[in-house]
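ok so i was messing around last nite and threw this chain in just to see what happens. nothing serious, just curious
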Amino acid sequence: MPRHGYNASLLLAFLLMAGCAGPRAASDRSAEVRTESASDRRVQVMALFMDATQARLKGDLDKAVPLFEQCLKVDPTNDAAMFELAKIYHLQQRPAEAIVLARKARDLDRNNIWYRFLLADLFEQAGQTEKAIEVYREVLQQWPDRVEVRMQLAHMLAEAGKVDDARKVFEDLREQMGASEELVLQEYGMLANAGRLEEAGAVLKDALAEDPDNLSYLSMLAELYDELGRADEALELYERVLREDPDDSMTRISLAEHYYGQGQLDEAFDELGVAFGDPDLDVDAKMQVMLGFFDMTDRQGAGNAEQEQLLGRAYELVDIMINAHPESGKPLTLKGDFLLRDGRYLEARDAFRAALVHDHDKYPIWSQVLQLDLQANDDEGLKNDAAQAIELFPTNPELYLYHGLALSRLKEHDAAIEALVTGRDLVVDNDPLLAQFWSSLGDAYNEAGKYNSSDDAFEHALALDPKNATTLNNYAYYLSVRGERLAKAKEMSKLSNELSPGQPSYEDTYAWVLYRNGEFAEARTWVEKALVNGGSNEGVILEHYGDILYALGDPSGAWEQWKKARDLGGASGAIDRKASTGRPEAP
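result:
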């Protein structure tokens, strides 16, 4: 697509910072407040205006508004107060009131250009384009030398669909300023954005007639020819530009797009490789190109040979970027995104960690690393990475959740509890996150043998999130292991399976609650569900299956399951004895 040079930035964005000369003298309005002398009223108005202005400058708009309004009650024709109050109304999303005041201020002092600018800006932002155009025309009648106003008028006319009128304004600008590249780019961009591509091309050709060696014009014309389907002419211009300036990497990217559009993939990647290897080409420009490749190489289309080739070349380009910008973390982050999307999780984590060497203050990268630590069950890595992140972002509660989880898994229970309590106390207005902290504290307290604190934490978690299947499951399991409040445990475990059916760990918990409650036959049904749904690879579930079979009078079947559980690992500390003796209890 052409790099349209037209920039329709708002002319008046700085108005909200504009000051004014203060209230006008009130000597010509003294009849309006007959109970006070003109001098007293001037003093009152000045004091109100100064207090209001100080409040506005401090950002205290709630204080400034009534002061400006009081100023207008004392002096209803104070245009300066109208101007200031209109700006505040605009900030407060009160456009109609702002326009009324701005119009009154303009009418009271037609020699103040800032009043006109504010009114035009308010009309434009309210979608009243025609009225904004009218104000700009009035400004130019009184101040014909204001070039920036003509530029803004051209923009507004184009926005209103009056492209021919806008072109006339550009003619006036050329007469006023003479020919310039800025005017060419503005007019070209306006026409291109309006879809009048042939006319846009004519603007570039006219400019080239005046300045035949301008490579920017040539490159833009080449892109325009591509958009018009005139590929041969486009290629000729690209090659001409690169002969004159082989280091023009942006044109190489445009040429690569040209080749890609023609199905010439090898040529396209050759040009991109050269451009991406240019350390002087801004890394963000390359990132924009690679975002397109990220979408095009989505694994949903995997299996197609061309797709796989495209993906391989995308990785090559990312590596070229990394080499060209060794001090930037952006290419490494991009590589991490590609690897993560493609399921190469450990490589993705390495890329994100490398990016943090350069962009250590980027929280989203830390978040990705921590999630990948968790996914990889790398508890030591999670502990260390979370600790580093906490040093950088000490008020971010999520980091303490990661840290506490890692410490808990590493059996550092007191440190885990401390981290989780610290993070919990940092949570503000986020009940789901607070519930997660309470639930994690329930786990940590249980592992530390602090069962009353564990139960209390789980109760807090469920009060905030009563249908959290994980919290329900864990609380129920811990109660069943202790043989306490089995009716409550059964109710919670049943609900967790209703909320999240087919989860083998939840089904195993329900089986174990039933077993502890003496309901052996139903316990067998549920533990076998867990095995069918993936639990056959978990030692603790096989151990439970053995215990249930033994209770049902099948010691040989139980012994077989205990031996499997011992070989898999992950069962209780009693599994070696069970597998050796074939009995659930010590002799």
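not much to say yet. The chain is about 75% helix and 0% strand.
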